[in-house]
Amino acid sequence: MKPSRALADVLAERVVLLDGGLSNQLQAQGCDLSDDLWSARLLADGPGRIEAAHTAYARAGAEVLITASYQATFEGFARRGVTRRETEALLTRSVTLARRAAETVPHEVWVAASVGPYGAMLADGSEYRGRYGLSVAELTRFHRPRVETLAAAGPDVLALETVPDADEAEALLRAAEGCGIPLWLTYTATAAHTRAGQPLADAFALPAATPAVIAAGVNCVAPADAASAVSIAAAVTGRPGVAYPNSGEHWTPAHGWQGEKTFTPARLADWTAAGARLIGGCCRVGPQDIADLARLLKDA
C-alpha cells in the first residue's frame, strides 16, 4: 500500500521496519549474481525476480523497501554497452518495481531509492575501505546524475547507504542538494569509526548540517557494533537513528562470506535504546529475520 504520510512524520512516533538484504533473497530465488553489476544486472535481465524479492520482504512485514539501484551506475552499465538513456530507464525501473511490490500488501510501505558508494561501482570491495583517491568534487560529479535520475522517479526517500568515508558522505549530500526528496545517510563502520578511519562523531556532523536528512545511522555493520554507532548518530544529528546491520559474517572479494551469523532480532531492544527508529537488515539478513523483527515490534 502506498503510504499516506511522510516517512519523517511516522519516525517521530514509532519504529519503522526496513527490509533485509536484496542480494541474498535473489540468490535464494535461484538468481546468479556472480557479476560486477551484482543485483543491478537483473534490472535489465530479470526485473520480475527483483519484484518478487521485494514482495517477499513486504509480506514479511517490511515497511520500507530499498530499491535494486545500489550497484546501478551509468559507468557500470556503460561497460556493458548500455546507453545513458537505457540506464536512466533502468534506474527508474528500480523504483517502479519496489512500488509494485508495496501494492501487494495491506500495510503502508515506503520506497527508498538506494544510492550506493563509488566503491560499489568498482566491484572490488572498496566500499568497505573508502579513500578512493578522488576529491569530494569528483565524487559529487559521479553521484549527481544517478541521484537526479532516482529522485525524478518519485521514491519516498533516498537512501545514501554503505558510505565508508566522510568525504564521500559530503559528496553524496552535495549531489542530493535541491533534489526535493528526503534523505537518510548511513555509514558502514565499526562501533566508533567509518571504514576509512574517521571518528563517527565527526562524520555525522555532515548529515547533522543537512536539513533534508530525516535519519542517520549505519548499515552493513556487525550487529554488535550497531547500537554504539547509532547512539553517536542520534546524539550528533538529533535525528532518528538508522540500523540495518549485516548478518555478522565477514565478506572479502577473494572468499565471499565467512564466519558465523550473529544477527538476531533479540538485539532490537539495544538498537531502539540507542535511538534507532529505522531498523532492518543488510547482507545475509532474510525475510524470516524481518518477520521475526516485525513480531517483536508488534508485541512491544
Automatic annotation (TrEMBL):
Protein residues bound to Zn(2+): C220, C282, C283
Pfam family, one: S-methyl_trans
InterPro entries, per the entry: HCY_dom (IPR003726), HCY_dom_sf (IPR036589), Hcy_S-methyltransferase (IPR051486)
Top-level taxon of the source organism: Bacteria
The keyword Oxidoreductase appears for this protein: no
Gene Ontology annotations of biological process type: methylation
EC number: 2.1.1.10
Hcy-binding domain location: 4-297
Entry keyword set: Metal-binding, Methyltransferase, Transferase, Zinc
Entry's Gene Ontology molecular function annotations: methyltransferase activity
Listed cofactors: Zn(2+)
Official protein name in the record: Homocysteine S-methyltransferase
Name of encoding gene: mmuM
